[in-house]
């Protein structure tokens, strides 16, 4: 579980950093890079949410 938590934190960190970098760049000059950073952030958040959901399902006891 410790590694999974680190993975989630890392994915969220990547998403946050990519978003910050995207906002620092002027959209007109670096439009493709900004788009790539935005998509990287979206994908990282999506992966983190999916892993978080899978982790909850694995640790939740089945209901009768």
What does this structure look like?
About 80% of the residues lie in helices and about 0% in strands. α1 packs antiparallel against α2.
- How many beta-strand elements? 0
Mean pLDDT: 81
- H-E string: HH
Q: Kindly state the percentage of residues in helix.
A: over 70%
Low-confidence stretches: none
Distance between the termini: 26 Å
What's this, in brief?
The protein is mainly α and 64 residues long. It has one domain (2-58). The chain has helices spanning 2-24, 31-59.
Topology (SSEs and partners):
Elements: H1 2-24, H2 31-59
Helix pairs in contact: 1-2
Jot down its keywords.
64 residues; mainly alpha; 2 helices
